[in-house]
Specification:
- It is a single chain.
- The chain has two helices and 13 strands.
- It has about 190 residues and is an alpha+beta fold.
- A four-stranded antiparallel β-sheet has the order 11-12-7-13, with helices on one face. It has a three-stranded antiparallel β-sheet with strand order 1-6-5, covered by helices on one side. The chain has a three-stranded antiparallel β-sheet with strand order 2-3-4, covered by helices on one side.
- Strand 5 and strand 6 form a beta hairpin.
Length: about 190
């Protein structure tokens, strides 16, 4: 069964501007600018007034209508990214050999040393605008911050994947770098 029209409205907070041109969205805010291409799915996107964005899908099935909510969530994450930003915290877990992590090139390159006592140095570059830093107050903690949630999350996944234990019993070798906390950066009051 097809539905004639389905739509959703997204509120745009003050201090944030959205530009839509041929389903390419640009969100500008106090922390910077994010762009996203959403041309892969047919959908109308129009600005209603100064502070609302309307997403409309015509003559669509239920599976296609679900993309309205998906696109709306992507846009809300972009708005949250340019106003607050996103932070992922990762902890180093090791049983015997302490993992040493060095942050190089102003937080865009990580060098992981002594993982399971290996001599090999693992290098992970951060994605897009993500900046990595070692936590000052907590031992063995890495903090990733950035505006684009996908770039921050993918950087965390790259770091986790670089310390995956291979060819050993995973019940015994639990070492690695794992995400311990994630979310938006809290606004100071």
């Amino acid at each position: 069964m097809k539905f004639r029209e389905s739509s959703a409205v997204i509120d745009v907070p003050e201090g944030v501007t959205i530009e839509v041109k041929a389903r390419q969205i640009t969100v500008k805010g106090p922390r910077g600018e994010l762009k996203r291409d959403m041309r892969h799915q047919g959908m109308e996107m129009e600005l209603v007034g100064n502070n609302k964005l309307k997403l409309t899908k015509w003559c669509a099935k239920k599976a296609e209508i679900s993309t309205i909510q998906t696109f709306g969530t992507h846009i809300k994450n972009m708005i949250k990214g340019v106003t607050q930003g996103f932070r992922y915290k990762m902890r180093f877990v090791y049983a015997h050999f302490p993992i040493n992590v060095g942050v190089e090139k102003q937080g865009t390159l990580l060098e992981i040393r002594n993982f399971l006592g290996e001599k090999r140095v693992r290098r992970v570059t951060t994605r897009a605008d993500t900046i990595a830093s070692l936590s000052k107050g907590v031992k063995d903690e890495l903090v990733l911050e950035g505006n684009d949630i996908q770039a921050v999350a993918q950087t965390a996944a790259d770091i986790n994947r670089s310390t995956k234990v291979l060819d050993k019993d995973l019940r015994k070798f639990l070492d690695g770098i794992f995400v311990s906390e994630r979310g938006a950066i809290p606004i100071p009051e």
